[in-house]
Design goal:
With 206 residues, this protein is an all-alpha fold. The chain contains nine helices and no strands.
Length: 206
């Protein structure tokens, strides 16, 4: 499994930065753009700009197919088209793994944020599956980046969540609250964790 240099470099840089809060749900609207240091901005920019071909990080094709089939069954009611569903799941797994995130946590976040709606837009203007605010394209990406594009949206969302996890030293609840713009309020992180555990974590087969 390749987690790339971005994760290691970002962890070192983020220990020197202050946190920022944003909200990305279709219900919330408290997101604010705040300044990033030049070093953090550069690392995040490299992360979203990487154009490496997506590749599932499994030890073999059998494990990859097993994961895709299991997750596909769970997602079928939300995303009926099998081809689109498998492309979506493959991209989620790649982008989450690349950022050092649990793909099942990312699936739970997407369910809570957008209900798996590609073109979801919040009152604050957050866009797509992971409800990314447009200012991020200016802050760490490029103006032409389309946040309704599957891979682009997931790339930004996973990069941002990784950023908050590093700020919070791995505290998932606080990182999720930052992602949602509700730091100090437990409701959103608890909701994502509940969906993560009940609906998306793989069934243990012992």
């Amino acid at each position: 499994m390749r987690l790339s240099f971005h994760h290691c470099t970002l962890s070192l840089l983020l220990s020197l930065t202050a946190g920022i809060c944003l909200s990305g749900t279709v219900q919330a609207g408290a997101q604010h753009e705040e300044a990033l240091s030049a070093s953090v901005r550069a690392v995040l920019h490299r992360s979203v700009a990487d154009q490496a071909a997506p590749k599932l990080a499994f030890p073999n094709r059998y494990e990859a197919d097993k994961w895709l089939n299991e997750m596909s069954r769970r997602l079928q009611s939300r995303m009926p088209n099998r081809t689109a569903r498998l492309e979506f799941l493959s991209t989620v797994h790649y982008e989450a793994t690349r950022a050092g995130l649990d793909p099942h946590l990312v699936l739970a976040l997407i369910e809570v944020e957008s209900g798996f709606r590609k073109y979801a837009v919040s009152k604050a203007g957050a866009r797509g599956y992971m409800q990314v605010m447009p200012f991020w394209t200016r802050s760490i990406g490029a103006p032409e980046h389309n946040l309704f594009h599957l891979r682009m949206n997931l790339r930004y969302g996973c990069t941002i969540l990784r950023y908050y996890l590093d700020i919070e030293k791995g505290d998932t609840h606080r990182a999720l609250a930052r992602y949602n713009g509700s730091l100090g309020k437990p409701k959103y992180p608890q909701r994502v964790h509940a969906v993560w555990k009940k609906k998306w974590k793989p069934v243990s087969r012992g």
